Structures are given as C-alpha cells and as structure tokens.
Amino acid sequence: MAFAPLLASAQYKSEVWCPDNGDGTYTNPVIDADYSDPDACAVGGDYYMTASSFNCIPGLPVLHSRDLVNWEIVGHALKTQYPREMFDRPSHGNGVWAPSIRYHNGEYYIYWGDPDNGVMMVKTKDPAGEWSEPLCVIPGQGMIDTTPLWDDDGRCYLTYAFANSRSRFASIIVVRELSADGTKAIGDPVIVFDGNGTECRTCEGPKFYKRDGWYWIMFPAGGVPTGFQVAMRSKNVYGPYESKIVLAQGGTKVNGPHQGAWIHTELGEDWFLHFQDKGAYGRVVHLQPVTWRDNWPVMGIDKDGDFCGEPVTTFRKPKTAAPWAVRNPQESDEFNSPVLGKQWQWHANYSQTFGMPTAFGTFRLYTHKMDGDAVNLWSVPNLLLQKTPTDNFTATAKVRFSAKDQNQYGGIVMMGLDYSTLIVKRVGDEFLLQRTTCLKADKGEPETVETIATLKPTSVDTIDYQPAIHEDIYLRMKVSEGKCKFYYSLDGKRFSQAGKEFTMREGKWIGAKIGFVAAEPAGKANRGCLDADWFRVTK
Q1: Any residues with CB less than 8 A from the CB of 474 and at least 6 apart, and which?
Q2: What is the CA angle 197-202-204, rounded to 5?
Q3: Residue 171, by phi and psi: left (phi above 0), alpha (psi -120 to 50) or beta?
Q4: Which amino acids are annotated catalytic?
C-alpha cells in the first residue's frame, strides 16, 4: 500500500499493556517499557516526559500525557549525537544519561550528562517539534544526571552527580550556578550531599525543585535494583540540607523504586513518576501518589507513619480538567508513512545507507557491510529496534528479503548483551532459514548458527543488471516471562517453531530490544535489502 499524504496519526492503543482500568483507576506500571530514568514537567494540564536513551538514535524520547497515566510518543529531542566520530558507530551505554526536562520563560529545556563529553542541553518552544542542536554547557568527564532550577530571582542552578567509572569518585550530589540563560557555568560546584559510607551509597539522579520557599533535591540511592528514593530540603540553595527516605520497596514486589519526577498538577495534586528495574525488560515507569506531612513528601502508601511509603499497584487516577482518552506508546507499524514510526531507534547516528521509508507501504533496511573481523552484531549500527512493550507479547513481521550476493541476510532479532535472530540467508541460489544466537556479544563472542530449513526463492529477477533473488516470509517472536520463541510462516497462517527457546538479556544500560536486522560480509558487492511490510505487536 502506498502512503497517503502525511496526516496527524490517531492515538495508539496497545493490545498487550494498558494501565488505564477504565473505571477511574490505573495499574502500575503506567509504561511497561524501558523508559529508564524518567523525568517530566507540567505545563498547565500537559505533561511531557523524557528518559535516558544512551547511544540509541533518535534519542531523548518525548512523551505527552494529560493524566500521567496514558502516554504517547510525540517526538525526540536528539537527532544526532556528538562527537560524530564516537556516535556514528555503536557506542553502547554511552551518550544520554538521566536527562531532565523543564519549562522556563516559554521554552522547554532538556539537560543531560554525557559521561564522556560533558553537560549537554537542547531546547525548543514546541516539545513535539524540532529541538535545537545540542549545546555543551559544561565540558568534561564524569558529570551525569543533571537538572536545572531557575530561582525566583532569575538565577539558574544545576544539580548533578558523578559516574565513578569516569571520575573515580561518586555518591555525592553537587549544586553549581549557571548563567541566567542556562548555557554555561559561572560558579564552582558545591557538595550538598555525601552518601559515601552510608546506606545512601550510589546516590545519583538528583532532581531540583522549589516549593514554598524551600529548595528540594530528590534523588535515588542504594543501588539501581535494590535502592530507594530520598528527599532533602533546605532554605538555602547550597544547603545544608536535611534528608529522609520517602519511598522504598517495603513488602511489595516493586524493587528499587526510585529516580524520577515529582509533578505538581494544575489541580493541586502531587505525584511521583519513577522506574523499576525489570532486568531484561529494562526500567519501566510507575506512578505514585504524593502526600505532604510536616513539609515532607510521602510517596506511595505509608503504612507505619515513618514518612517512607511503599509503591501502589492500583490507585485512583490523577484529577484532570478535561477528559483524556486511553492511549499508549506506539508499538505496531504498518510502514505506510513517509516517516519512520516514533518507536524505532538505531544503534548509532542515522545514515541513509541504513534504510529508508518507501512510497510502496514498506520500510527498506539495507544490508550493513560487517567489519572484516566482526563475529557478531554488537558493532552493527543499522539494527532497527524498539523497546519490549511488556512481559508477554507476540511480534510478527511480514517481510521480503532481496539478496544480490552470497551470504546476505535479513530478519528479526531479540537484541541485548546476548541476542538471537531468525533470518533468511542467501547460499547459492536458495535461502537458508537460520537461527543465530550469540552469548556475551559485548565480549566479542561468536555466533552459533542453526539451519532450520532450505527455502526456494519466491521470485527471481530475470534482468541481467544487478539481479536479485527474493524471499517473502512471515517471521514471529513470542515472548513470555523473559523467554523468547521464534516462528516462521510462508503463508501468514500456519507458523512453525524455529529452533530452541532463547533467554532474553538486557543490553548495556538498556532493556532487550526487538526489531530488524540486515547484514552481509564485508566486500564490494551490491547491498541486499529487507523490505518490512508491517510489524504487529499482539497478545
């Protein structure tokens, strides 16, 4: 199907995870996908969220909601990461760490710490539109998890933490003054909290606020999967601050509830968005009610009156001034638009040689020419991937793979530190349907290959110039509780299992991701391509 003129897309409703119960309540997580280190801001009745994207591009996803429960992806704030020599190839786990989004004087700002390059910032007047090119506010290594605060007098301050892997010290929170426009540092950093040697080890991810004359810095501590949320307050921006633990796992199944965004709504309610680490699925987003007691924010439900709440599972939705229909972050894609769906990301800065939308109702992914010594997909930049949408789902793709030379291949992949694919690969004048699996891909371990079937091409070019052979096939993965099974079909009706079950594993600071792969050995042959007709996520 050829695409129609580009129109505003209808809201997307997931078949596999919806937090809105339809009765005025919601069930956590509100986003059961890997939006790590979420931060959000409120502008009137609109809420905008962003999250860590590390090396994945486009980066800095921007999500919109009007009730804090139903979210949709409206864009990305980062099209290209710099320096290009670092991010034009996969730089796993580097790049955008723990961003913050703020609204000031009619503009939206996102700050983040790139641990290798410095404190970065982009801004815009339209969060769903184009954002500025990234500006390096403070160059240097080790600074992460940055949040600005514009004070009542117009002065701007920045709080941040440090990555031990770069600075060789950590577990401290600092405050530093920036210029009033937030573009450069004009003061030196001041340590306002030190968690070394205490239960607040690994304190990081600070978020800066001001409420009724009090400065608030809220941050996680105690480790990503095991920690808790801390709030600290002072009447002076540089402290001293007093602190309390205000959210912890307690007797719930929600481990490590921390690092997120305090939101004060236009109707006077307070809420806290945070993540939970779910291993291979990444870090998913929860929403907690916030009540105030003795000028301390108590998050979740405080059963014993000690100011430290436990996460809720089901709770009433936030009050809104106007109805907001059920919607979820996009997953399925019919590829009928001249613009790639907002759920998709590459592993490096985009190049048109990766692939492009077509006018034929498909997305074309060209085979990446592997480095001569490559033994797995870890260094491949053109993997077209999206986040896993929940614990249990099925993803099915209808594709045509066109090979112009030997050993070109394409198909679907469950990608992480360990990964597995279901591909068709040209050998001679036929295709081999293969499962390739790699354990410890990040350590340079080679793939193992299992041939499932030999397939005759569904069509063959008869011209003499750059002829190709083609395979039309349906590829599927079923995911359940961290396990993935692969299937294939030649007619879209009868599916056969392809190989053994695969145990999912997270990527470098990100959850496992699903999508497409197309590659070939190094050389001067003309590239093959995978044309994806559609990608559908169902139960």
Answers
A1: 396, 397, 398, 399, 488, 489, 490, 491, 492, 495
A2: 130
A3: left
A4: 37, 204
Nearest to 501 by CA among 422, 444, 398, 384: 422
Q: Are 476 and 395 in contact (CB under 8 A)?
A: yes
User: Distance between the two ends of the chain, CA-based, in angstroms?
Assistant: 25
d(CA 386, CA 331) in angstroms, rounded, equals: 8
**Bond into 38 cis (ω within 30):** no
Q: Residue type at 250? A: G
- 14: its two tokens: 């997931």
- Distance from C-alpha of 123 to C-alpha of 381, rounded to nearest angstrom: 27
Task: Count CB atoms within 10 A of the CB of residue 452.
Answer: 18
Contacts of 83 (CB under 8 A, 6+ apart): 117
Residues 148, 150, 155, 159, Cα dihedral to 10°: -20
pTM over 0.85: yes
Q: What are phi and psi of 164, to 5 degrees?
A: -60, -30
Is residue 18 within 8 Å of 317, Cβ to Cβ?
no
Q: Which of 367, 407, 395 is nearest to 486 (CA)?
A: 395
Residues 458-492 pLDDT 10s: 999 999 899 999 999 999 999 999 999 999 999 99
377 by DSSP, 3-state: which? helix
Residues in the chain: 539
pLDDT tens-digit readout, 356-379: 999 999 999 999 999 888 999 999
Tokens matching residue 398: 């209808």
Identify the three-state secondary structure at position 413: strand
Please give the order of strands across the beta sheet that includes 207-211.
Answer: 207-211, 214-221, 228-234, 242-247
> Which residue type does 215 have?
Y
Please, are residues 496 and 475 in contact by the beta-carbon 8 Å criterion?
no
- Of 123, 39, 38, 133, the closest CA to residue 79 belongs to 133
Distance between CA 244 and CA 199 in Å, rounded? 12
